[in-house]
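[Meeting: bench + compute handoff]

Bench side (C.D.) handed over the final construct sequence. Compute side (W.E.) agreed to return the predicted structure before the next meeting so the bench team could plan truncations. Sequence as handed over:
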Amino acid sequence: MARYLAAGLALTLAACSVERPEADNQAKAEPAPALAPAGAAANEAEPGQPAPPVRSDRSSRFTTLSDATCKLVEENREEAGYWRRDCAGAGGFRLQWSESDLRQELAIVSGSRTDRLSLSRLVTNGAFDTIGKTVEWRGDPGQSPDRLVARVNVADAANPQGPDISKLIVVRLAPSACIVAIVDPGPDQSSAARRVADDDDRSSCLPG
C-alpha cells in the first residue's frame, strides 16, 4: 500500500501546481471504487463437510512475473507511469504483464492471438492492484495446460491503510482466454482454485 500512497501524494502535489479551469476546481472528488463481488468458486464443500480433494490426474507448472524474467517492451514514466513486459509461459503460451496508473493487467498470448483478462473490470472494480509473481499452469501431465491460476492483490477501498485483498483468478486458456472464476480469500484458497481449474464444467467466461 505504501507505493499507492506515495504515488497518490506525488500526483496530488503535481496537480496543485497547475492552474485548472474554474469548473475543474469546483468539481468534487469521486469516492474510491468499491470491490465488485467475486465469482464463487466451484466444488466448495457443503457446510460441515470436508472439501473434495484436488484431482491427482492433473499437474501444475509454474512461471514467474518479475522485472528480471520478463522483457520490457514499452514504457512511459510520466505521472503514475505505464509499462508492458513480455513474459514466458508454458505449453506455447506467453504472458503480457502491464501496469498503468498503479493498476496491473495480464494478457494471454497464443500465436497471433492476445486476450486481455480485464482485471480492472472483472476483479478489482477499478481499484489499485498488483499481480502475484508466481503463475500456475494446470493441465494433464505431458500436455499443454488448459487453465491458469494467478493471484491478484487488490487495494481495499474501505481500509486504505490495511492489507490488500488477495484473490485468485482461474483462467481458461482455449479456445480463447478468459476468467472463469474468482476465488476469495479463505482457508485452502489455493486448493479451491485448483479444484475450479480441474472442473471440466467450469469453462464459461465470467460476464461483464
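W.E. noted at the follow-up: Helices lie at 2-16, 22-26, 119-124, 189-197. C.D. will use this when planning the next construct.
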